[in-house]
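User: My instructor asked us to take a sequence, write out its structure as tokens, and then describe one feature of it. I'm not sure where to start. Here is the sequence I was given:
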Amino acid sequence: MVCWFVMVASSRNIDVALLRAFLTVAESGGMTSAASQLNLTQAGVSQQVKRLETILDCQLFDRSQRQLPLTTSGERLLSYARRMTSINDELWNVMTAPAFEGALKLGVPHDIVAVFMPDILRSFGRALPRVQVTLVSKSTPRLISMLEDGRIDVILTTELAPVGEPLLADRLVWAGAPGGEAYRQSPLPIALGDAKCAFRGAAVDALSKANLDWKLMCHTTGQEPIIAVLKADIAVAPILTSAIPEGLNPIPDDSHIPDLPTFYINLRLPAGGVSDITGELVRHIRQGFAIRRSPVG
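Assistant: Let's start with the prediction itself. The structure tokens for your sequence are:
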């Protein structure tokens, strides 16, 4: 008689609520602020974090400091916690959301499309596969005009002021080729968007106030030509810090080029409100930015 033995590896399940508590404390900087966001008591949040630490057999926060910085174990857990809570929320939405059908238009400036939109559109597409989203990429003023005329359902903008619902505050910086020399040249070679580009006025104004002579090497309505001349090290250009493309770097801080202002990525909705389908897209946009942002104050 032949006996077969099957070894089953033991496993333990982690309550997503514990991961959410950990994540909220890590992103908000303390138990009190996390308790407010989670609608729990401070003691309740503390108990959830301690329970997670017991399950994982490690300390996640350095409690010897007031701001509760993450330990090495906490830093390792952070990205996994974000992924697991995101998958949990996505699954919940797929299984409980109405079977939306339809189409809508989303407007996003070309300089932030590649960085922010893939994850958001992927999440929305998985949750509402029967809704068609048409992505419209134009300058902020053009998108605002389309929103006001009812030609588009919801837009993101890049603006100097927080308008509508600010999602992210981000510093505009000069960017160029890694180890490049273009920023050392005089007059300064720069690449800019067209006259309606949100960053063009800020860049020209900063250069004028610094009495720095410059010459225009690229004038375009799209991002690709600007990236090309920057990688070729024949110009520098103003780009949001979070949106600097791969293969480019911020210009060194000790350069002679003047600093640029902070811009806001704003969410703007039509004055008459939004449909249920658009509301779902807005929720995914907010969630996508919440994962990566520092609180806007």
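For the description part of your assignment, you could build on this observation: The mean pLDDT is 88. Try explaining in your own words what that tells you about the chain.
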